[in-house]
Design brief:
The chain has 102 residues and is of the alpha+beta class. It has a single domain, classed as GIY-YIG endonuclease, CATH 3.40.1440. The protein has five helices and four strands. Strands 2-1-3-4 form a four-stranded antiparallel β-sheet, sandwiched between helices. A hairpin with a 4-residue loop joins strand 1 and strand 2.
Length: 102
Amino acid sequence: MYFTYMLRCKDNSIYTGITTNVERRMQEHFSKDEKCAKYTYRHEAEKLESVWESQDRKLASKLEYHIKKLKKQEKENLIKDENLINELLAEKIEIDKYKRIL
C-alpha cells in the first residue's frame, strides 16, 4: 500500500508527498527529522489535511504529480471536498484506483 498526502504548513502552504507509512512520515515532518523533506524543514508542518490510499508507488506518484500541478485554491478546494477530485483530476488519473482515507 502507498499513500499520497497533503500537509498544511504553518505559513499556510501545502506540501504533497507519498509514503508507505503515514504515521512514520508525519513524525519525520513534524519533528524535522533528518529524513524530513527539505520543504517541510523550511516550512514547518502544522496539520495533515488529506490522505489517499493506492495499490502501488506508480499510482501514488501519479496522484502526487497531478496534485502538485494544481493551483493553490484548487488544492484548498480538494481538501474541503473529497468529491472534487473527480472534477479536478478525472481526465488525468483513474479516480477509482484511489481511496481517500482522510
